[in-house]
Structure formats: structure tokens, C-alpha cells
Design a protein that fits this description.
Helix content: 40-55%
Low-confidence stretches: none
Oligomer: single chain
Largest sheet: none
Strand content: under 5%
Mean pLDDT: 78
Radius of gyration: 16 Å
Shape: elongated
């Protein structure tokens, strides 16, 4: 999908490491959520 030139312009298609950076970001968010919910409630 390429949205360049449309009213819903997305800057990500021009990034050098767009896909890997998004995957790393999602993995960090998921790991943070898992770590938070695995904490023992005192």
C-alpha cells in the first residue's frame, strides 16, 4: 500500500528501516504489558 500524495499521507513508507522498527516497537509494548500483568499483586 502506498499512500503518498493522498489526503491520508503516511510518512512511514519513506523510512529506511520502517518495518523492523515497527516490529521492535510492537514487541517492546507486548513485553511491557506481559511483564506488568505477571507481577504478583501484594
Amino acid at each position: 500500500m502506498n499512500f503518498e500524495g493522498s489526503p491520508h499521507d503516511m510518512p512511514e513508507p519513506g523510512w529506511t528501516h520502517d518495518y523492523p522498527s515497527v516490529m521492535v516497537g510492537m514487541a517492546l509494548v507486548a513485553a511491557t504489558v506481559v511483564a506488568y500483568f505477571r507481577q504478583e499483586v501484594v
